[in-house]
Amino acid sequence: MDFLAGLNPQQRSAVTHVEGPLLLLAGAGSGKTRVITHRIAHLVEAHHVPGPAILAVTFTNKAAGEMRDRVLKLLGNPEYRAAPLVSTFHSFCVRMLRRDGKRLADIRPGFTRQFNIYDDDDQVALIKQIFRNVGLDEKFMQYRAMASWISHAKSRKQSPQEMYGSSKDPKTSRLATVYERYEDRLRQANALDFDDLLLEAVRLLEHDEDLRRQYGRRYEFLMIDEYQDTNRSQYELMRLLTGEHQNVCVVGDEDQSIYGWRGADIRNILDFERDYPKATVIRLEQNYRSTKNILEAASAVVAHNIERKGKWLWTDAGEGEKIGLYEALDAENEALFIADTVERILSANPSERVAVLYRTNFQSRQIEEALRRYGRNYLVVGGFSFYQRAEIRDLLAYLRVLVTPHDSIALLRIINTPARGIGKTTIEQMEQFALANELSLWSALRRILDEQAFSARAEAALRAFERMVIELTDLLNTEPLDEILRRVMERTGYGRMLESDNDPESESRLANLNELVNAAAEAAERGETLTDFLDHAALVADADGLDERAAVSLLTMHNAKGLEWPVVFMAGLEEGLFPHSRSLDSNAGMEEERRLCYVGMTRAQKRLILSWARYRRRFGGGQPEACVASRFLKEVPRERIAKLREDAAGGRQVDLYAERHEVRETVKRNLYTGQTYNSLDNIAQYFAERGIAAPRAPAPATRAAAPAAQVPPRPAAPVAKRKPVGPGSSVNHPKYGRGMVLRREGDGEEAKLTVSFPGYGLKKLVVKYAGIKLDE
DNA sequence: TGATTCTACGGTCTC
DNA sequence: CGTAGAATCA
Question: A193 by DSSP, 3-state: which?
Answer without folding.
Answer: strand
